From TrEMBL:
Residues 1-20 form the signal peptide. This is Paramecium surface antigen repeat-containing protein. The chain crosses the membrane at residues 344-362. It comes from Cavenderia fasciculata (Slime mold). Keywords: Membrane, Signal, Transmembrane, Transmembrane helix.
Length: 363
């Protein structure tokens, strides 16, 4: 159900992004309400009224568009829907419970404890794959991937020739060498000037060595240069014919009808990207060392071994308040990391919401 809400936000965002050609429709307001404030969808304005961390939107009737923010239900409390339960908890048999936290080979009491398609073996009381074919990587051992033929396979080792990312090990990418040959590269391992795949998402894993100050910029591992930053103009023309003076990590948002606009930060600055990459490299290394799958639950391997690295990554990769509004509103990790909610209403550009929602999906 939580995924459905995120998807709904995504489609709504996509809808407004399409509508957003006209200047004054370019961005929408998001609220982030506390106890007993109105939430849901304002069909007149298209505004999404979210509840802040620790609250869920309770609708009086099933088809209501608007409801009231109520306190989330903690472990063991009665519920009828996943959305009512605090953070990453789900509604299981009418009670908020922690589900799907155990990876392959870990202990379980019932199948609800096992992640994805794994089942709890009654004989061994551990999570096991349910058939001779795999559905996803979670069905396979940590060092193996699930192939297109639904069989687990040992990925291509670091430094060996590859064609695609999914042939390489967990978190490794298939990167080009200077002569065009592609080889698997360990995350955060490549030196300055190495070719990297710049996916444009600073929160995603790259092959460049963050601890040497490198991030992937335009497909090259580059030293972050904070001196290139120039002051952001407060008054610019947004339209496509005007020479925009906004920086790479900013976008021009119209502030009134016509093309009068302002530069808003919409993604991480180079310095923020590096900070995020450094924190993420420690987190990924911890997952690899402990063979933990990326399962964010209070009883998961990730939490048992890499909780501090995970929370440092969340902090290090957190974007400024205005950009991060949706994530701040509804932080699924709230019962893992201490997060501070916000009850303010901030305008954010729609495509940022799209990017954020996408990053939640693919990260
Ligand atoms: C919550 O809001 C509703 C509607 O505005 C009101 O009737 C109700 O008394 C409020 N409840 C509390 C506990 O404040
Ligand atoms: C919904 O949007 C309209 C138009 O912007 C506004 O007048 C109204 O107060 C909003 N309702 C709520 C519940 O936010
Ligand atoms: C099932 O899990 C075992 C480890 O318990 C693993 O060795 C095997 O490759 C997995 N097979 C499939 C098809 O998922
Ligand atoms: C490209 O360079 C790598 C490493 O220097 C080397 O192993 C590989 O054989 C080269 N490939 C070609 C096609 O020359
Ligand atoms: C775009 O901006 C330029 C320069 O400010 C202006 O001359 C032009 O009329 C604008 N076009 C539109 C469609 O607003």
């Amino acid at each position: 159900m939580k995924q459905i809400i995120i998807l709904a936000i995504f489609f709504l965002a996509a809808f407004y992004a399409v509508q957003g050609e006209q200047c004054d429709l370019y961005y929408e307001e998001y609220a982030c309400g506390g106890f007993n404030t109105t939430c849901g969808l304002n069909v007149t304005s298209g505004q999404q009224l979210l509840c802040q961390t620790g609250y869920y939107c309770q609708f009086a009737n099933k088809d209501d568009k608007l409801g009231l923010c109520q306190e989330s239900i903690d472990l063991g409390g009665k519920c009828t829907d996943d959305d009512q339960c605090l953070g990453s908890y789900d509604c299981e048999n009418g009670v908020c419970a922690e589900t799907q936290f155990a990876q392959l080979g870990e202990e379980c009491a019932s199948t609800a404890d096992c992640y994805s398609k794994l089942i709890c073996s009654t004989a061994t009381k551990t999570c096991t794959n349910s058939s001779t074919t795999c559905h996803d990587d979670y069905d396979c051992q940590f060092d193996e991937n699930c192939g297109k033929d639904n069989q687990c396979f040992a990925p291509i080792a670091v430094g060996q020739v590859c064609d695609k990312d999914d042939e390489c090990g967990t978190y490794s990418l298939c990167e080009k060498l200077a002569n065009g040959t592609k080889v698997c590269a360990a995350p955060y391992s490549l030196a300055e000037n190495a070719i990297c795949s710049d996916n444009g998402n600073p929160n995603k894993i790259t092959s460049c060595d963050a601890n040497k100050g490198l991030v992937c910029l335009k497909d090259v591992c580059s030293l972050v240069n904070t001196n290139t930053l120039t002051p952001t103009p407060s008054d610019v023309k947004c339209n496509s014919t005007a020479t925009t003076t906004c920086q790479d990590f900013e976008d021009c948002i119209c502030t009134s009808a016509g093309d009068q606009g302002k530069c808003y930060q919409t993604s991480a600055t180079p310095t923020q990207s590096l900070q995020c990459a450094k924190a993420n490299s420690k987190f990924i290394q911890c997952l690899i060392t402990n063979k933990c799958q990326n399962i964010v639950k209070p009883s998961s391997c990730l939490y048992n071994h890499c909780a501090s690295e995970y929370c440092d990554m969340k902090d290090g990769c957190a974007l400024p308040q205005a950009i991060n509004q949706v994530e701040n509103c509804q932080d699924i990790a709230q019962n893992i990391c201490a997060v501070t909610g916000s009850s303010s209403t901030i305008a954010i550009p729609m495509f940022t919401v799209v990017a954020l929602v996408l990053s939640v999906f693919f990260f």
